[in-house]
Amino acid sequence: MNYEEMTIKQLEEENKKLMAAKAKINATQMTLVGVMEAKLAVEAAKAKVEGMSGAEKAAVTQLLTGAGAIKSEEKVGVPGTKT
What is the tally of structural domains in the chain? Predict the structure, then answer.
């Protein structure tokens, strides 16, 4: 494709096509990065847990499930909605 031989109207249309393709690629990349970051976070968390002593693992388990536990969505509701 030779841009020099195209009319302004043709160039504008080609630019619109390229901008649409770019937007689609950007959206796909954002999805990919989100999934990749989530997987990296899981791997980092696994590595931290593997490095903990038994006592540290027990303390974390107690924090997450027992006294001082992080409340679940069931108990606190969904942010942005009325309960």
Answer: 1
Contact present, 54 and 61 (Cβ < 8 Å): no
Q: 15-40: per-residue pLDDT in tens?
A: 999 999 999 999 999 999 999 999 99
Give, in order, the Cα–Cα distances in Å from 19 to each of 16, 27, 29, 72.
5, 12, 15, 42
Domain-embedded: residue 43: no
In a domain, 33, yes or no: yes
- 0.70 surpassed by pTM: no
Domain assignment of residue 23, given as a range:
7-38
Whole-angstrom distance between the N-terminal and C-terminal Cα of the chain? 59
